[in-house]
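hey can u check if this looks right to u? its 385 residues, i copy pasted from the old doc so theres a chance i mangled smth
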Amino acid sequence: MRDLVEIGMGRTARRTYELDDISIVPSRRTRSSKDVSTAWQLDAYRFEAPILSHPTDALASPEMAIELGRLGALGVINGEGLWARHRDVEAKIAELIAIANEDPDPYAAVRFLQQLHAAPLDSGLLGEAVTRVREAGVTTAVRVSPQHAPELTPALLAAGVELLVVHGTIISAEHVAQVDSDGTQREPLNLKTFIADLDIPVVAGGVHDHRTALHLMRTGAAGVIVGYGSAAGATTTGEVLGLGVPMATAIADAAAARRDYLDETGGRYVHVIADGDIHTSGDLVKAIACGADAAVLGTALAATSSAPGRGWYWPSAAAHPDTPRGALLQVAAEEERPSLERVLNGPSDDPFGELNLVGALRRAMAKAGYCDLKEFQKVGLSVRG
């Protein structure tokens, strides 16, 4: 039964929980961390670490996507980001960071980011970025918005994309109308038809509740993204749109939708990918324990020496032309950034869970007595008083 509380006469709200509100309850059985697997498989693609990068230009250079792939994770390029609009992206990002560091106007960096994204999309540039990742021999994933998915997908397929991520702040399977910037109304994207016409798996999101997650699963998506992205630097959940569902509850609801869809279809499994407030190894562990198959990381990866943002992070929604929902946030000093390998696989000298994320997940699973991710989703949980 849902835990409802009265917030006023005749108005109730559901009590929900953040990842910080829960803890994992170890069982009576433990095992060696050497016997634990953190691997997961999405369609035909296997990954040794249940980690995807947030599709922001602060992370999603082709070079970083290649390095993530070689370390067992999945790098997701933003198909509508700077690598699809400019040839000299490194110089543009350097100018952006200089503004963030030096301009006394706190909004100057966001305005410059909007200007960079006002440049037209160039399918040729995007294809070059995708081809570089594909030729490196790692799985190639690209994010597109529902608005631009039909026009960008042919070029992505020609370049060899293997996973398509249709991602927005909020996505539903029943978008009512779609209007261009000049006021022209277009036919809305029918996600079910769109996915059925593709020969590659599609991950779609974000969603926040059981009903919407189930609707997206019925479109044929191979994975569903749950959450609104990292709260660090993002303003969707409070200041701008007032939207937000605490991640522990959102993940658990989507996992319940996955079980219902599994029963409904007689065995089709759709992966749940958590995307929100996952900054440390403890956050990653609890996201998996609540029912996620994998998690999207932002700030943790932005702090690495491989990230093109040079220690700065901003969510992809920060560049929206008229309703930006995020700011630039410095997460690490440029000269103090650890390697991507240390952040994912250690070794670590950090006692706060910002290094060796995969190793910490493996150890937590071992302490609780589980040997793989799907089994670990059954671990006991407690809510802090």
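Residues 125 and 307 are 20 Å apart (CA to CA).
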